[in-house]
Amino acid sequence: MRDVIVSLVIQMQVFEAIRTRRSIRQYSSKPVEKDKLLKVLEAVRLSPSATNRQPWSFIVVTKPELKEKLREAYDRDWFVSAPVIIVACAHPDKAWVRSDGEEYWKVDVAIAMQDLILAAWEQGLGTCWIGAFREEEVKKALQIPDDVRVVAMTPLGYPAEEKGPVSNRKPLEEIIHYDGW
Ligand SMILES: Cc1cc2nc3c(=O)[nH]c(=O)nc-3n(C[C@H](O)[C@H](O)[C@H](O)COP(=O)(O)O)c2cc1C
Fold this sequence. Notes:
- The protein is an alpha+beta fold.
- It has helices spanning 2-20, 34-45, 64-70, 77-81, 105-122, 135-142, 172-175, and strands at residues 56-61, 84-90, 126-127, 149-157.
- It has a four-stranded antiparallel beta sheet, sandwiched between helices.
- The longest helix is centred in the N-terminal third of the chain and has 19 residues, at 2-20.
- It is globular, with a radius of gyration of 18 Å.
- The protein binds flavin mononucleotide.
């Protein structure tokens, strides 16, 4: 019985994080506490991946001069002003490939990234998935090896803007099909 109650409470917390999480594009200068950062990184570590290959590396950037270098890759003040930037990388040669050749490294890293984002939000920390970066500039700034791909980046820090819960989404009827297309 206790397990049922605990799992109900956990389910509600996860859904609440999904419902209220928003992309944050203004950050407070308040530093991110080490225990909170570690919990966010632990969420990444526990994430699932195809055949459990865990084909990823995450770079935690806090040095101001490195954050400034990342401006070459994504030139937004709010991005470089966050106390932490996390860069999510994939090792394509270590990831699972389906028998028809479909590569799964992007999927694996995307799942870990979303777990990071929700774990951050649960602790009051904002993020914003950045996809529109110049990959070569990220690799140059952080000396990332040639065979590693950069999948995403996110600033991490306390939000300095208030946003309501998610609202501008398509209705279920438009996106869900039952028993076939
Ligand atoms: C794959 C992906 C790439 C994104 N790239 C960027 C980006 O480069 N810059 C940005 O400001 N937001 C980016 N976003 C954030 C989206 O614009 C945002 O998630 C979407 O508008 C919904 O808003 P919400 O996150 O506040 O619910 C990205 C989101 C995803 C999932």
